[in-house]
Amino acid sequence: MTEELAPRRLFDVARRGWKASPELREGTRATVTLALLGAVGRLVVPILVQQSIDHGLRNGHVRLGLIGVFAACGAVAVVLSAISTRLAIGRLARRAEDALLGLRVRAFSHIHRLGLEDHAEERRGALVARVTSDIEQLSQFFSWGGIVFLVDGSLMVAVIITMGVYDWRLTIIALVAAAPLTIVLRLLQRRLIAGYAKVRDQVSILLTAISEAVMGAAVVRAYRVSARSSQRVVVASEQLRDSHIRAAMYSAMLFPSGEMFSVFTVAAVVVVGVALGPAGGLTAGSLVGFVFLCYRFLDPIAEMTETLDQTQSALAGWRRVLDVLDTPIEINDPMPGRELPHVAPAIIADHLTFAYRPRPGHETSPDTALDDVSFVIAPATSVAVVGATGSGKTTLAKLLTRLADPTSGRLLIGGIDLHDVRFESLRRSLVMVPQDAFLFDASVLENVRFGREDASDDDVRLAFVELGLEAWLDSLPEGVRTRVGERGDLLSVGERQLVSLARAYVANPVCLVLDEATSAVDPATEARLGRALESLARGRTSVTIAHRLTTAARADKILVFDQGRLVETGDHEELLVLGGVYAALHASWLDATVV
Amino acid sequence: MSGSAAAIAAHRDGALRRGAGLVRALVRRHPRPFIRAVLSAAVFGSATVASSWALGRVTDKAIVPRFSTNRIDWGAVLWALAVLIGVGMLRALAVVARRSNASRTQMRVEHSLRLDVIDHYHAQPLGWFDRHPTGELLARAHADAEAATQVLGPLPYASGVVVLLVVSTAWLLVTDITLGLCAVALFPLLVAINVIYQRQVEPAADRAQERIGDVSAVVHESLDGIMVVKAFGAEARETERLAVRARRLRDSQLEVALMRANFEMFLDGVPALATVALVFGGAWRVQSGAMTVGQVVAFVNLFTLLVWPLRLIGFVLGDLPRSLAGHSRIVDLLGGFVPPSALAPIAEAAPGDAATLVGVTFSYEPGRKVLHDLDLVIPAGRTIAVVGATGSGKSTLLSLLAGLHVPDQGTVAVAGGTAHLVFQETFLFAESVRANITLGLEISDGELWDALDAAQASEFVAALPDGVATELGERGVTLSGGQRQRLALARAFVRHPKLLLLDDCTSALDPTTEGRIISALDARRIETTTVMVAARPSTIAVADEVIFIDHGRIVGHAPHRELFDQFASYRHLVEAYERERSERP
How far is B49 from chain A (nearest CA, A)? Predict the structure, then answer.
């Protein structure tokens, strides 16, 4: 959707963007000079006509030689200025594309460094748009609107100066006669923008209706509602058609309005010019030349107006990209940071509290996810964290991996405050296996290598062997070279988790944070996963966010969370005896069993 | 001519012929606005020539006499200007008429094409959708319909340009045969520059488009996998992965931009040079008394007016391949087989039976049977669980009972002729809660809330901002998986089906809620027979009988306890479900 920015804001955005892109600023003066020289070429014909009429065609006596000289000069000027324009456009294109490349890469890198809160699922699409469609819109602007502003802007400046040199009175007449055009254009333009905003809305409504007919095909058939589903598309398509026809009507009126005004301007100039006559210092040639200049002056106005819609949406996109670049990075690499020793560490939580910042628009008090939590985990032991959804167990995982910083309290890993550990050391020593075993659209090999870039083919294979997954790996059509598809779609959910474990293994961390997947997998894979997890955790300090009680039962120690508080600690047997939250969870599990 | 050159020429010839065929096929749907657009374009073409002629008259009748005789004939001046203004207005109106009618044609044809595509979709059985990726189907109905009609936008203008060229040439030839002949030579040159440019820029532009796709794929993937990227500290690596593609995109975009700048240089420069030559040639003709100053001015003006319209021919040629491709994809789609009905024929089951299958065999693709020769009788008023490993054919069995697939052999009969299926994955429409449940069925609020109650959904629906009127989906409220499943159940309950088919559709619900829903079903068992795919011990526990499927065959059909004692494979499966049970608070 295009938001309409006030002209002042547009200017602000352009200035901010200008500052943020050093590539764009380079050599501006030369580019504008070339564009102005290029504009001179477009004045050759009016001036040539004027000179020829006044000096060559006087009183029926034609001085062909003189006109020949004029024409030859004119031809040279045309060629030189065409080359100048070409150079100016080339320079603009190069600067703009370099600037957009820089902007795109900087924005992408910045987005990657933003905290997880900024990466919430519902903001994903917006973040993707910052680095893709917003930049593409700017690129389109620089390849049309930007050139129009540069070339036509230079032309208008050159034309007004030339007009003034010919006759200041006629210049004023021409400017006054053309002034109402800007108002008409502005009015039409506003409707045009609104019209196309409506078209875009209708497009998204139509796309929803079409995708429902396709993706909901099963429901549509099972409930025998084809007629209804079809009707929804018909209505959406009709509305799109009608709104598009309406918007096109405004654009149809916008286009020739420049030409309409040029006729009136020319008429006014001719009437005044004829009235002034030779006594007013005019010549036939200068009046005819002036008429040609009027046409040259009005054409660019219409074209510039046509680009305004594009300009607006490009600048709005630019602002969104700049805003992302201004979003503060909350988690920073400490300078100079400390190194974690490469042995399985103890983990100590010291009065940890974490509150999510209130969402914009939801002016409630901050949402406390962890409330004064303290615990100690011995080196090379396995700990399971259990609790209901919203109990704070996932937040704990984020704090442990420094994907978020505690609001208060400290986390010590191997005796060092997590806050002081260099990122590079932290990521090497402590690896998180996220719940969603996300795989890249590449081979198994490349996905595992994501854990450690310099892992050799043998290292990768060894990871599967060590995790007891050799047989599974060999069952793949092309072994480690098997492609996994988009998001790993060619593998089953469970198989994706196997690859994700191998990826963690090859990274060889001393500490693991595992966010257990909730989705059910087939029994054979389930068994493989269980064994692989055990091998992976061996000799390392591991914290598992457990969703299965069987996982918890196997752990050396269980931390039970309830509404952000650590309520119970102990091993499986102890907690059952205790008869608290954990025992209740266990009982409801046994209850639902039929065997 | 070499063989390959001949082949290219033949191909080009074919493309033009195909282009004409495409235009005929498109315009036939809505000929009136198209004819209006073409006529307006012809008026525009003629008025463009006339406006230059009028400017020449202004020069000859108003300006030149004033300065050569120093006398003002206001009558002649105003008359000449009136003609200039009149022609200018006519030209502007013709532009408005041409553009609005051209887009009217384009939008109407696009709409008609799209409706044909959508009708085709709705006529297809469910299995057809498995063979066609969603993205492809969306593209046919939207992007391809748009691309197919793209050429209709500039086409009337281009035909007006042809009129413009013919009238200009005739006028030039009549006024002065020498200048006329020069102009005749120039027009094809300008058209040729345009055509060459279009040919050249197209592959480069396609490449740039492809690279935009590459960049966006990396961005999507990298942000989708942000947890993994962060977990391994791979931010810098990912940025470099993007930068490589972004640099390639920059190179492509720049290539296109520079190509265009080169072309613009010729397209502006050549007519300007021609105009300069025209001034000289005109002066020479004025000297010999063959032309007036006004006529030279008129020709100079005409040349400057021609530059832009000549580009239109290039635009049409540029749009043509894309339109042809889009249209032929749609034609291929519409030419595909359309079965008499999108649903399978279902017989009426014998009284006392909820459903019967006799000798049913089914395969999604030839040679790979999913169900083998099934015979099954489901008595009315019972609750049946279907149990089997992944891929054993449970869901397929249910979809056959619902008439979504046609069996290869055998017959399906269902009480009342229709069953209602609740899917494993809930599909909700971007409409209100109410519309999602009724799907057009006319029911009272009381009936609606009864269904919501039974599906354990009334509590959360009542808490939604607008209750049952709350809009769902992208522009509305987002529901959790469990909430979505409950709405899907309500959608089935409100129809009071004789046979209700549940395809593991309570997977996102906690055992307590699931239990309540099952009791609600139990209360309805006199009117509704329930067949449910079960992957949870608790669901299996409530069933009167269990159908155990393995590799597309019914292995056993008996109460749970009997199957458990009788079949080791059944026992293993149920025990695996036990182990896998998720902890649910």
Answer: 14
CB contact under 8 Å between B536 and A592, yes or no, is yes
CB burial readout A145-174, b (16+ within 10 A) else e = bbbbbbbbbbbbebbeebbeebbeebbebb
- Determine which of A59, A70, A78, A134 to mutate to test the interface with B (most B C-beta atoms within 10 Å): A78
A208: chain B residues, CB-CB within 8 Å: 430, 473-474
SS3 of B388-447: the string is CCCCCCHHHHHHHHCCCCCCCEEEEEEHHHCCEEECCCCCCCCCEHHHHHHCCCCCCHHH
Tell me the chain B residues in contact with residue A441 when contact means C-beta distances shorter than 8 Å: 217, 221
Are B415 and B529 contacting, i.e. CB atoms less than 8 angstroms apart?
Answer: yes
Whether ipTM tops 0.90, in short, is no
Count of CB pairs separated by less than 8 Å, A with B: 413
Backbone dihedral angles phi then psi of residue A121, each to the nearest 5 degrees: -45, -45
| CA nearest to B233 within chain A | A427
Choose the mutation target among A73, A76, A241 for the interface with B, i.e. most B CBs under 10 Å. A241
CB-nearest partner of A57 from B228, B233, B286 = B286
Q: Which residues of A touch B57 (CB under 8 A)?
A: none
Tokens of B31: 């000929």
Nearest to B26 by CA among B91, B89, B90, B107: B107
Nearest CA in chain A to B141: A210
Q: Shortest CB distance from B107 goes to which of A241, A271, A441?
A: A241
Nearest to B122 among A85, A229, A436 (CB): A229
Encode chain B (585 residues) as per-residue pLDDT tens digits: 344 444 444 455 566 788 889 999 999 999 999 999 999 999 999 999 999 999 999 999 999 888 888 888 899 999 999 999 999 999 999 999 999 999 999 999 999 999 999 999 999 998 898 888 888 898 899 989 999 999 898 899 989 998 998 999 899 888 888 888 887 788 888 888 888 888 888 888 889 888 988 998 899 899 988 888 888 888 889 999 999 999 999 999 999 999 989 988 888 888 889 889 988 888 888 888 888 889 989 988 888 888 778 777 777 877 788 889 899 999 999 998 888 888 888 888 888 899 999 999 999 888 888 899 999 999 998 899 999 887 788 989 999 999 999 899 999 999 887 888 998 888 889 889 999 999 988 999 999 999 999 999 999 999 888 999 998 876 667 787 888 899 999 999 999 989 999 988 887 777 778 888 888 888 887 788 999 998 777 788 888 999 999 989 999 999 999 999 999 889 888 887 776 654 333
Instruction: Kindly determine whether residue B85 and residue A263, on different chains, have CB atoms separated by under 8 Å.
Output: yes
Per-residue HEC secondary structure of A409-472 comes to EEEEECCEEHHHECHHHHHHHEEEECCCCCCCCCEHHHHHHCCCCCCCHHHHHHHHHHCCCHHH
B568 touching chain A per CB within 8 A: no
Within 8 A by CB and 6+ apart from A431, the residues are: A451, A504, A507, A509, A511, A512, A513, B231, B232
Contact B228 A507 (CB under 8 A): no
Quote the CA–CA distance of B513 and B506 in Å, as a whole number. Answer: 9
SS3 B103: helix
- Taking an 8 Å cut-off on Cβ atoms, the answer to whether A218 and B404 are in contact is yes
> Of B533, B503, B573, B557, nearest to B357 (Cα)?
B557
**H helix count then E strand count, chain A:** 23, 10
Asked if B273 and A93 come within 8 Å (Cβ–Cβ), the reply is no
Contact B252, A136 (CB under 8 A): no
Q: Which of B63, B222, B403 sits opposite A288 (nearest CB)?
A: B63
Short-list A200, A231, A69, CA closest to A137? A200
Contact B279 A284 (CB under 8 A): no
